[in-house]
C-alpha cells in the first residue's frame, strides 16, 4: 500500500502531504471516516476542538492503533479554540483534546484563528447577537503559552492557522520562535501566492484547507468548473483528485475532508499534473478570486477584520498582535 509523499517540517518532523480533514464530519460519520482513511493509507489527520467530534475520532484511533498503525506512524494535528487564548487556558484545552482523543501527545498543535473570544462562556460566547471578542489577549501572549507546551512533551510542533504575514511577523518579532506550520484556506480560487512565498522564505510549512472549496458557503463548487472537469477527463481522474493535485504541485500539504468511503479512498490516490494543466487551472483563480471562509460574514458575526478582504473592511476590530 502507498502511504503517499512526505514533507519535512522545520523541526525535522515528517508530515504526510495528504491528510484527512474532519470539519463538519458528523458523529457516526467521522469514526468510520477516520478508520477507513487509516486502513487505506492516510497517515495525517486534521482535527480541532471546535469540530466537536474528537471523542469519536478517539474511538476510531483505538480501532487502528496498534492493529493497523503504530501511534508514531500517524501525524495528528489539532487546534486551540478561540475561547482558550488566555495563557492560563492553553494547556488546559490541550489536555482536554488529548483526553478526547485518548492520546498522550499531538504531532502538531495550532492556534486555530488569530482571534480571541471571551473565555468561560462556551465555544461561541455572544453579546448583542455578535461573538463576544476578547480584545485584550494578544496573539503574542497566546503564542508564548504555545511555546511553553513544547517542553511538556504533549506536542511535537506548534503552529498557527488563518494567520497573515503581519500576524506571523508580530509573534516572531516578540518571541523569536517561528511557527512550524500555517494552515490556511488555499485552492484554485485563493492561491495566496504572497503568503505562501513569505512562509516558504521562512521555512513555515503551509497546509491548505478547503482544497475542494468546501460547499457550505453557497458558492459554486470547484468540482463543477468546466476546466477542472476537462482536465479530470483527460487524466482519467476525478475532479477532486485534480484539485488535490493542484495543491500537491505547489509543494504544500492538502487536507481534503470526506466521510464517504469511495471519496476518502480516491482522494488519496495522487495524480500528476503537467505544468500546462497546472497553469490552466491557476488561470481560473485569476479570473474568479474567492475566499470562502471569512468569519466577519458568519452568523453570529465575528466583528473583526482578519484578512483585509473587501467584505471585512467595515469590521470594528482587528487581531491584537501584541
Ligand atoms: N484551519 C481552519 O480554519 C480550517 C477551516 C476549514 C477547514 N479546515 C480543515 O480542512 C479540511 C478540509 O476543508 P473543508 O472540509 O472545508 O473542505 P474540502 O475538503 O475542500 O471539501 C469538503 C467537501 O467536499 C466533499 N467532497 C469530498 N471529497 C469529494 C469528492 N471526491 N468529490 C466531490 N466532493 C467531495 C465533502 O463531502 P463528503 O464528506 O460528503 O464527501 C465535503 O462536502 C477540514 O475538514 C478541516 O479539517 C481548517
Written overview of the protein:
This protein is 34% helix and 14% strand. The strands form three sheets. An eight-stranded parallel sheet has the order 3-4-5-6-9-10-11-12. A two-stranded antiparallel sheet has the order 1-2. The chain is built from ten helices and twelve strands. The protein starts with 5 loop residues before the first strand and ends in a 35-residue tail after the last helix. Helix 1 runs parallel beside helix 2, helix 3 packs across helix 4 and helix 7 crosses helix 8. With 322 residues, it is an alpha/beta fold. Bound molecules: NADP nicotinamide-adenine-dinucleotide phosphate (NAP). The site of NADP nicotinamide-adenine-dinucleotide phosphate (NAP) has 29 residues, from helix 9.
Helices and strands in order:
Elements lengths: L5 E3 L5 E3 L3 E2 L8 H10 L4 E3 L7 H11 L10 E6 L6 H15 L4 E6 L14 E2 L2 E2 L7 H11 L5 E7 L3 H11 L5 E5 L7 H9 L3 E5 L16 H10 L3 H11 L3 E2 L6 H8 L6 H13 L35
Parallel strand pairs: 3-4, 4-5, 5-6, 6-9, 9-10, 10-11, 11-12
Antiparallel strand pairs: 1-2, 7-8
Helix pairs in contact: 1-2, 2-3, 3-4, 4-5, 7-8
This protein binds NADP nicotinamide-adenine-dinucleotide phosphate.
